[in-house]
C-alpha cells in the first residue's frame, strides 16, 4: 500500500506513525514544506517568557526519528496540485523548484491551518510578528527580551498568553481585540472579568471592542491604529485566529464554509480513499451534536491516530470532541469544556447555567484557595453541555471530568451522584465538581 501524507504537524505525524504500526510494509511518503515536524506552537509564549529548558524539546519528533521508523520524509517539498479522484499529486521541491507527479493508493490531508491575516494596510511590515510556526517563534524570540513596548492583537489563548508573558518580563503591553472582553470565545463573561482585572493589575492596557484599521511603520517604532485609538510600540504581534489550509482541495471534498474538510466518523472524506485530520478538518462537536471547526492539538492527535487505525478498513470510530482546553494567566488557572451560557446562546441553543464559589478543601487546614465552578446544561433533557473552572489552585483536570460527562451524555443528576473521593489534603467532603452538579440539579428542579 502506498500512502501520501500531506503535512506533518500533529495530525500528520500521528497519522504516519499509526499507519506504519497498522501496515508495517506500507510505503508512507510525508510531504512537508518546512524543515521541522511536530512543533508545539502552544509553547511559544512560554519560550518568549523564558520558561523553556531547551527549545529542541518543543518538538516530540524529528524528520530523522520518523525516517528511523520507516517513514519517507520529504522535507522542503510542497504539494502544489492534487487530483483527489485520481489520487494524483504534483510535488514541488522548494529548493530546486523541480516538480514531479505521483499516484497513491491512499491520501491523508493534514495540511493544518494558517494564520488569519486580514487585508489591513501595513500588516505585512517588518515590525508585525506572527505566532504560528517555528519560524514565527524564532523571529519573535530574537527580539522579545529587548522589546520595551508591544501591541498584541487578539485576546484569545495565544494573544492572552503572549500579553501575559511579555508584561511579566517588563514589557509595556497593549492587548487589542475586536470583541468586548478577553477570552471571549473561550470563557463566559464572569471568568473574563477575573482575567481582565489581573491584566490591569500588571499594567496591561486593554483595548477591547476595537478593530485594527492600519499599521504605520514610523521607522523606529510602529503605530497600530484602531477604531478606538492609536497605540505606538516597538512591535505588533498578530494572534487573531486560524483558518484551514485547504485551498488546494476546494471543490474536491465536502467542506464547511470556512474550508474545513468534513469527514465521516472514520476520518474518511467524501472522496474515496482520501482521509483528513487535524486543523485541516472539521470535528464532530458533541455538545451541539454537529460539525464545527475547533483547531486544537488534542483533536489533531486523536484524529491522526484514527486515520492510521482506519486506513485499511473502517475499524475505530471518532468519539467527537468537547473542545476541552486550559490556560494559566498570572497564576490563575482556567479550564473549560463544551458550551457556556454565552456560547450556547450564540449558537441558538437553549441552556441553563449555574456558578459556585467555594474553597477547594476544608478551612481547618492552614491554607486553601477559592474555586469558581460553572456548569451548563440542557434544561429539557438535563444533559450536561459544558463546564468552567477557575482558581489559583490547579483545578484544570476538572474540565476533563466534565468532558467525559458530555461525551457520555450524562445528566446533571448523574454527575451530582457520581463517586468522587474525599481527603482533606485534596478536597471537601463534597468535591467542587459534585457541589456545582448538586446546585445545578437543584436549580433545574425549581
From TrEMBL:
Keywords: FAD, Flavoprotein, Oxidation, Oxidoreductase, Redox-active center. Residues 332-427 form the Pyridine nucleotide-disulphide oxidoreductase dimerisation domain. Pfam families: Pyr_redox_2, Pyr_redox_dim. It comes from the Bacteria. GO terms for molecular function: oxidoreductase activity. SUPFAM superfamilies: FAD/NAD(P)-binding domain, FAD/NAD-linked reductases, dimerisation (C-terminal) domain. Residues 1-304 form the FAD/NAD(P)-binding domain. InterPro entries: FAD-bd_OxRdtase (IPR050260), FAD/NAD-bd_sf (IPR036188), FAD/NAD-binding_dom (IPR023753), FAD/NAD-linked_Rdtase_dimer_sf (IPR016156), Pyr_nucl-diS_OxRdtase_dimer (IPR004099). Its cofactor is FAD. Belongs to the class-III pyridine nucleotide-disulfide oxidoreductase family. This is NAD(FAD)-dependent dehydrogenase. It comes from Weissella halotolerans DSM 20190.
Amino acid at each position: 500500500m502506498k500512502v501520501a501524507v500531506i503535512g506533518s504537524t500533529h495530525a500528520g505525524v500521528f497519522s504516519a506513525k499509526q499507519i506504519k504500526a497498522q501496515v508495517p510494509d506500507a510505503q508512507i511518503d510525508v510531504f512537508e514544506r518546512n524543515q521541522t515536524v511536530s512543533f508545539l506552537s502552544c509553547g511559544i509564549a512560554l519560550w518568549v517568557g523564558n520558561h523553556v529548558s531547551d527549545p529542541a524539546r518543543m518538538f516530540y519528533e524529528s524528520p530523522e526519528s520518523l525516517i528511523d521508523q520507516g517513514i519517507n520524509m520529504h522535507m522542503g517539498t510542497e504539494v502544489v496540485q492534487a487530483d483527489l479522484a485520481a489520487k494524483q499529486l504534483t510535488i514541488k521541491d522548494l529548493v530546486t523548484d523541480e516538480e514531479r507527479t505521483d499516484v497513491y493508493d491512499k491520501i491523508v490531508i493534514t495540511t493544518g491551518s494558517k494564520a488569519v491575516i486580514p487585508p489591513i494596510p501595513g500588516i505585512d511590515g517588518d515590525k508585525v510578528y506572527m505566532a504560528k510556526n517555528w519560524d514565527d517563534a524564532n523571529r519573535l524570540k530574537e527580539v522579545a527580551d529587548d522589546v520595551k513596548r508591544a501591541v498584541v492583537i487578539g485576546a484569545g489563548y495565544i494573544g492572552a498568553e503572549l500579553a501575559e508573558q511579555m508584561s511579566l518580563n517588563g514589557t509595556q503591553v497593549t492587548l487589542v481585540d475586536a470583541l468586548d472582553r478577553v477570552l471571549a470565545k473561550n470563557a463566559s463573561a464572569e471568568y473574563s472579568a477575573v482575567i481582565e482585572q489581573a491584566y490591569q493589575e500588571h499594567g496591561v492596557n486593554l483595548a477591547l471592542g476595537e478593530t485594527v484599521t492600519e499599521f504605520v511603520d514610523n521607522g523606529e517604532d510602529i503605530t497600530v491604529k484602531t477604531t478606538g485609538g492609536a497605540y505606538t510600540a516597538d512591535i505588533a504581534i498578530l494572534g487573531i485566529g486560524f483558518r484551514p489550509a485547504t485551498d488546494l482541495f476546494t471543490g474536491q471534498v465536502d467542506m464547511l464554509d470556512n474550508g474545513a474538510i468534513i469527514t465521516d466518523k472514520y476520518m474518511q472524506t467524501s472522496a474515496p480513499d482520501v482521509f483528513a485530520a487535524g486543523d485541516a478538518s472539521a470535528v464532530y462537536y458533541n455538545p451541539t451534536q454537529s460539525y464545527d471547526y475547533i483547531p486544537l492539538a488534542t483533536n489533531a492527535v486523536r484524529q491522526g491516530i484514527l486515520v492510521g487505525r482506519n486506513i485499511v478498513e473502517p475499524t475505530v470510530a471518532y468519539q467527537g470532541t468537547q473542545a476541552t482546553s486550559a490556560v494559566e494567566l498570572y497564576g490563575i488557572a482556567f479550564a473549560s469544556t463544551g458550551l457556556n451560557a454565552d456560547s450556547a446562546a450564540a449558537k441558538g441553543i437553549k441552556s441553563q447555567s449555574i456558578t459556585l464559589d467555594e474553597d477547594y478543601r476544608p478551612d481547618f487546614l492552614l491554607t486553601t484557595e477559592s474555586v469558581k465552578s460553572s456548569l451548563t446544561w440542557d434544561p429539557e433533557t438535563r444533559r450536561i453541555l459544558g463546564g468552567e473552572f477557575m482558581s489559583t489552585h490547579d483545578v484544570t483536570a476538572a474540565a476533563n471530568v466534565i468532558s467525559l460527562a458530555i461525551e457520555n451524555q450524562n445528566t446533571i443528576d448523574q454527575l451530582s451522584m457520581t463517586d468522587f473521593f474525599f481527603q482533606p489534603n485534596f478536597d471537601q467532603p463534597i468535591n467542587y465538581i459534585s457541589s456545582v452538579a448538586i446546585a445545578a440539579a437543584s436549580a433545574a428542579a425549581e
